[in-house]
């Protein structure tokens, strides 16, 4: 199989294994996902989901959060780590949304990239999950699994992995595929323990074994 054929088989099997896989960050509005994905850097999604409850209770909309000082935000988000830089980015980002976008998150990839604290991974997540547009989110699970499976060859740089995946993943599948990689990476193809290859739905086609 070439990489494109392999990708289609992997997509199909993961779809059957994790039919309901979606974003593991809780949100009910685009700006909340923007906040959560910034807090999720070097922090678990589970912890972020707990911390943001207190943040949104105190600052329930873009305007309220834009009015808060970085120090006030940091006080609440500190348990996520890197509190000072995350609070500074969130504060600046909410002010831009308020002042330039009428409190709305732009549905344009390049405009998202210009927001403080938003990189390609975050912008792709927003594009795919919020706006339903083609997206590939190259988080640590995606990078690790795509290298193990053989969809990319020894590439660790997120943007380079993303660009390689765009060549072989159908655009409409990218977002859900990346969510399923997260589930598979947590449950089966783990990072901190030996991968559970004996119960992996990809074992017979995985580059780790062939």
Automatic annotation (TrEMBL):
HAMAP family for this protein: Nth (MF_00942)
Keyword Iron set for record: yes
Catalytic activity entry: 2'-deoxyribonucleotide-(2'-deoxyribose 5'-phosphate)-2'-deoxyribonucleotide-DNA = a 3'-end 2'-deoxyribonucleotide-(2,3-dehydro-2,3-deoxyribose 5'-phosphate)-DNA + a 5'-end 5'-phospho-2'-deoxyribonucleoside-DNA + H(+)
Domain of life: Bacteria
Name of the gene encoding the protein in the UniProt record: nth
Pfam families associated with the record: HHH (PF00633), HhH-GPD (PF00730)
Domain HhH-GPD stretches: 39-187
InterPro entries: DNA_glycosylase, Endonuclease-III-like_CS2, HhH-GPD_domain, HhH_base_excis_C, HhH_motif, Nth
GO function terms (MF aspect): class I DNA-(apurinic or apyrimidinic site) endonuclease activity
Name by which UniProt lists this protein: Endonuclease III
């Amino acid at each position: 199989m070439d990489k494109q054929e392999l990708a289609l088989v992997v997509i199909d099997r993961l779809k059957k294994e994790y039919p309901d896989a979606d974003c593991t960050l809780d949100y009910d509005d685009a700006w909340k996902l923007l906040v959560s994905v910034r807090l999720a850097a070097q922090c678990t999604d589970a912890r972020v989901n707990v911390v943001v409850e207190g943040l949104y209770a105190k600052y329930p909309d873009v305007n309220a959060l834009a009015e808060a000082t970085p120090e006030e935000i940091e006080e609440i988000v500190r348990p996520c780590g890197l509190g000072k830089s995350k609070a500074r980015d969130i504060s600046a980002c909410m002010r831009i949304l308020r002042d330039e976008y009428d409190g709305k998150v732009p549905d344009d990839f390049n405009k998202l990239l210009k927001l403080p604290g938003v990189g390609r991974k975050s912008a792709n997540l927003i594009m795919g999950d919020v706006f339903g547009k083609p997206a590939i989110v190259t988080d640590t699970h995606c990078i690790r699994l795509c290298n193990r499976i053989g969809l990319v060859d020894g590439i660790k740089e997120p943007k380079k992995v993303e660009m390689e995946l765009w060549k072989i993943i159908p655009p409409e599948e990218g977002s859900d595929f990346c969510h399923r990689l997260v589930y598979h990476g947590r449950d089966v193809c783990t990072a901190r323990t030996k991968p559970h290859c004996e119960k992996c739905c990809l074992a017979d086609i995985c580059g780790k074994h062939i």
